[in-house]
Amino acid sequence: MALANSVIVLDFETTGLSPNMGDRAIEIGAVKLVNGEVVDTFQQLMNPGFRVSGFIESYTGITNRMLATAPSCAEVMAEFNDFIGNDNLVAHNASFDKKFLDAEFERIEKSYNGEFACSLLVSRRLNQDAPSHKLGELVRFKQIDNDGVFHRALADSQMTAKLWLLMLEEMAEQGIHQPSFELMQKIGKTSKATVGKLLQQHSM
């Protein structure tokens, strides 16, 4: 059984919202968790082969000048493929990051065996009183330590990892110790009305 506390938490910064529209990754950040501890991190800018818009420069703080000297997407994604190995993956709004991971790996003919869980969907079920489930808002709501940097890939993946571990801690307080990765996926897909029942079934 794969445990939820041993995963790769990742985040992309990109040139836009859709790889189908020609958008590319410009930064990847990731945190490797083993038994709830951070054991490694990965961070790399990557040159998409074209200039990014002024909006993306100001939103992320990643400038065309920074990207000009960065390695290619192909080079970085090949390294990242080695980094994730066979681990399961977590991202905040995972459908977005999965789209870019799949598209960038497809370009270099790489694949991965792990599955995705979405910390945003899980938070919607477990933190139903939160005013918003945007990462920055949740970090404030949960009073998670942070250095105030958002929209940079490593900082966002570190925040997501802290949020993920906090949710696992709070589940442990409800008697759900060492939940499986599969259970976290299931929580994200369960309706708000019935998630309490699901958690009850798994509490000791």
Automatic annotation (TrEMBL):
Domain of life assignment: Bacteria
Keywords, in A-Z order: Exonuclease, Hydrolase, Nuclease
Record-linked InterPro entries: DnaQ, Ribonucl_H, RNaseH-like_sf, RNaseH_sf
Sequence ranges assigned to domain Exonuclease in this UniProt record: 6-173
Catalyzed reactions: DNA(n) + a 2'-deoxyribonucleoside 5'-triphosphate = DNA(n+1) + diphosphate
Protein EC: 2.7.7.7
Alphabetized GO MF terms: 3'-5' exonuclease activity; DNA binding; DNA-directed DNA polymerase activity
Keyword Protein transport: no
Gene Ontology CC terms, in alphabetical order: cytosol
Enzyme class, first EC level, given as a word: transferase
Gene Ontology BP terms: DNA replication proofreading
Pfam family, one: RNase_T
PANTHER family noted in UniProt: DNA POLYMERASE III SUBUNIT EPSILON, EXODEOXYRIBONUCLEASE 10
SUBUNIT field: DNA polymerase III contains a core (composed of alpha, epsilon and theta chains) that associates with a tau subunit. This core dimerizes to form the POLIII' complex. PolIII' associates with the gamma complex (composed of gamma, delta, delta', psi and chi chains) and with the beta chain to form the complete DNA polymerase III complex.
Function: DNA polymerase III is a complex, multichain enzyme responsible for most of the replicative synthesis in bacteria. The epsilon subunit contain the editing function and is a proofreading 3'-5' exonuclease.
Name assigned to this protein: DNA-directed DNA polymerase
Classification of source organism: Bacteria, Pseudomonadati, Pseudomonadota, Gammaproteobacteria, Vibrionales
